[in-house]
Amino acid sequence: MQDTVVSPEKAEEAKLKARYPHLGVRPGGSDLLRKRLTKGQKYFDSGDYNMAKAKMKNKQLPTAAAEKTEITGDHIPTPQDLPQRKQSLVASKLAV
Amino acid sequence: MAGAGGGGNDVQWCFSQVKGAIDDDVAEADIISTVEFNHSGELLATGDKGGRVVIFQQETENKSQPQCRSEYNVYSTFQSHEPEFDYLKSLEIEEKINKIRWLPQKNAAQFLLSTNDKTIKLWKISERDKRPEGYNLKEEDGRYRDATTITTLRVPVFRPMDLMVEASPRRVFANAHTYHINSISVNSDNETYLSADDLRINLWHQEITDRSFNIVDIKPANMEELTEVITAAEFHPHQCNTFVYSSSKGTIRLCDMRASALCDKHSKLFEEPEDPSNRSFFSEIISSISDVKFSHNGRYMMTRDYLSVKIWDLNMENRPVETYQVHEYLRSKLCSLYENDCIFDKFECCWNGNDSVVMTGSYNNFFRMLDRTQRRDVTLEASRESCKSRQVLKPRRVCAGGKRKKDEISVDSLDFNKKILHTAWHPQDNIIAVATTNNLYIFQEKVN
User: Fold this and answer.
1) Is B331 within 8 Å of chain A by CB?
2) Is the Cα torsion angle B230, B231, B235, B237 positive or negative in sign?
3) Contact B199/B229 with Cβ under 8 angstroms?
4) Where are the annotated segments for Disordered (chain A) (predicted)?
5) N or C terminus: which one in chain B shows less Cβ crowding within 10 Å?
6) What value does the mean pLDDT of chain B take?
7) Cross-chain residue pair B282–A27, CB shorter than 8 Å
8) In sequence order, which residues have a C-beta less than 8 Å from that of residue B272 and are 6 or more positions away?
9) What is the band of A40 on the pLDDT scale with cuts at 50, 70, 90?
10) A74 pLDDT higher than 80
11) Measured in whole angstroms, how far is the alpha carbon of residue B177 from the centre of its chain?
């Protein structure tokens, strides 16, 4: 008799594969790890950035829809895309 | 505060204090990223995403009123790390404090190591409660006296002043890590410490900042061959030559620094054999160890992976001696947890003072106490609703499926944005610090 009990993990895996048929076979492989190692990296050229900033003055500002996580050489970041890098001068709320 | 710190389930936990803002709109900077008691338990440090450290000090107990449990109040707060931009690599360096580790106290001052992704800093926290008064050449406000009016000699004396706590950076250990630092651990030799990133572990001397020794390097010659990363590392509490590091593949390697300068070859490899028929897409991801902690007695170590906590006997490499399920009901939710990235959440774990109970966090602001001696476990919640002084925490139950009983919460109602990743247990007493996203809860044992 065929065993029809599927472990919950395998059932979840089937669900995932149904949603993302192109998902790689080895999730723990180098792609996932390399993404982890390069966390925080922005491909950013300051020359291009300044050029884009200058061009922006004459153009209408686009609505921010661009993929913020994948800023590569093809996509020239604009001042609007980059998160604010404000220094924390505010005291922690735990210290109140 | 009497008590050997034992018995997680004989103990009734009561709310003691909560720190942080009440409002739901949480600024990123306020997200707590690490919590750590010092060696005596008198001080409790927190680090946040904004690079700030807040230290709380336990009030000295009022002996005449033993009912009054001592509270933790703000002792010092400072900006440990600032955001940086590495122009050479186009890399943004977050100021988030990944770990804080206290040094054992040697003199009147307190020292701690705090680290972000790239730089470790040694901070000195010292008290000043006296100041010199009666300078010969200066007025009290600092202005120099007119030399012609000085006719007598007076010698300054120290007079008491309001306590001032000062934090100053004494050492900055920079530029030693290409990848992101996940752990620091102070050695029992009280001279060195280690720092670990995804691929390498370095050994430092606490006094020397311009050089460190690489003791583990798992970077493959060809990055395409990368199969695992280092997720946590810790020195043995007593043996200064021994440390362990855990990996994203669920293994722990114990290394002996006496064996060779570069500890790429482990002395022991702890790995639980996996049933290949149970293997799924998620197997490796959920086996990734997010934290490893030695027991206080140095005989065991605990590892935390996505769904469980495992206790290993250092003398047995082939399987853990104990395994506890933290939230097994999540196994049938792995698909959505992968989609919302929760499957990559890094939970920490901690031991109580006498190694009889371990604690770890979960979702919905739940945390779990796992009693090793009594083989019992309980789920508790850190919430503003149970914030009345000395209110005993009620155990929580999650209903995995089927009929939900009264007082149970169904898996689908759990709030996965309310994660308890960081918890700490006082080294001797039954006092615990539990960090929700932006609040710090302190719970204590009920005293009758």
Assistant:
1) yes
2) negative
3) yes
4) 63-96
5) C
6) 92
7) yes
8) B250, B310, B318, B319, B320
9) low
10) no
11) 20
Output the CA–CA distances (angstroms, integers) from residue B61 to B39, B42, B72, B102, B391, in the order listed: 18, 11, 11, 23, 20
Which pLDDT tens digit goes with each residue over B167-209? 999 999 999 999 999 999 999 999 999 999 999 999 999 999 9
C-beta of residue B412 within 8 angstroms of C-beta of residue B364: no
Task: Name the closest residue on chain A to residue B73, using Cα atoms.
Answer: A95
Chain A residues near residue B50 by CB distance under 8 angstroms: 88, 90, 92
Residue A2 has pLDDT above 50, yes or no: no
Q: Give the pLDDT band (50/70/90) at residue B62.
A: low
Tokens for B221, please give them.
């010659």
Per-residue pLDDT tens over the stretch B304-333: 999 999 999 999 999 999 999 999 999 999
- Residue B227 corresponds to which tokens in the numbers above? 């199969």
> Comparing A81 with B413, which gets the higher pLDDT?
B413
Select from B247, B272, B245 the least CA-distant residue to B257: B245
Stronger pLDDT, A43 or B132, i.e. the higher one: B132
- The shortest C-alpha distance from A9 to chain B (Å) reads 6
pTM for this entry: 0.87
Q: Which candidate from B46, B95, B280 shows the least CB-CB separation from A10?
A: B280
A-to-B residue pairs, Cβ atoms closer than 8 angstroms:
128
Q: Check residue B4 and give its pLDDT.
A: 43
Q: How far apart, in whole angstroms, are the C-alpha atoms of residue B5 and residue B123?
A: 29
Q: Give the residue with greater pLDDT, B403 vs B306.
A: B306
Query: Is the ipTM reported for this complex over the cut 0.85?
Result: no
Name every chain A residue with its beta carbon within 8 A of the beta carbon of B289: none
Rounded to an integer, what distance in angstroms lies between the CA atom of residue A63 and that of residue A23?
31
Is A68 part of the contact surface with chain B (CB cutoff 8 Å)? no
Q: B157: buried, middle or exposed (CB in 10 Å: 19+, 13-18, 0-12)?
A: exposed
Contact criterion met (CB below 8 Å) for B420 and B436: yes
Q: Is the pLDDT of residue B262 over 60?
A: yes
Separation in Å, CA B53 to CA B36, B183, B209, B240: 11, 17, 21, 28
* Residues of chain A with C-beta less than 8 angstroms from the C-beta of B229: 33, 36-37
Number of H helices, E strands in chain A: 3, 0
**B397-399/B408-410 β-pairing:** parallel
Q: Residue B268: what are its φ and ψ, rounded to 5°?
A: -140, 145
